[in-house]
Amino acid sequence: MNSAESAQKHRLRMQRKKAVVDAAIARADQDRGVLLVLTGNGKGKSSSAFGMVARALGHGLRVGVAQFVKGRSDTGEEAFLGRQPEVVWRVLGEGFSWETQDLARDAETAQRGWAVVRDMLRDDSLGLVVVDELTYVLKRGWLDLPTVLADLAVRPPMQHVVITGRGAPEALCEAADTVSELRDVKHAFRAGVRAQKGIDL
Fold this sequence. Notes:
alpha/beta
């Protein structure tokens, strides 16, 4: 096949692809907030969510970030994104449960945290709300899943929500518009590499 034939074949293939893409875009006629769930055992769930925070800010949206489980306020993402004037950043946890070692206290902390998130979900000035590590407190039963789903369902119509964490409950995934599962193939920590600034935390 000569170069002219290759170019023509490519052109026809791209024309067919463009028709398929244009038809899909035409069918997407709803304009509303979406619920995204980022789950799975792989690294990058929170990082992906914070990338969406940057994207939302670039489009002029106000953003709320609520972090469950994590009790640290020295992360790179908070150091940068938390000082942006259009970001409301709340650290709601007291550290991982193997650090606190107090079941009742962890449950109470989660419930106080959800009250903060509920306020964010009622705030129509927030175009995006990131609820980081929510799946862990749901999995442990510290929050009532039907209540969480009900609060998500009555948020402002154009508010987007991103939820992160391993083991997302099936009902949460069913309620979501988009679910991405990150798969763990290999991780430096298991090879003895410490968490690195700018890459972890």
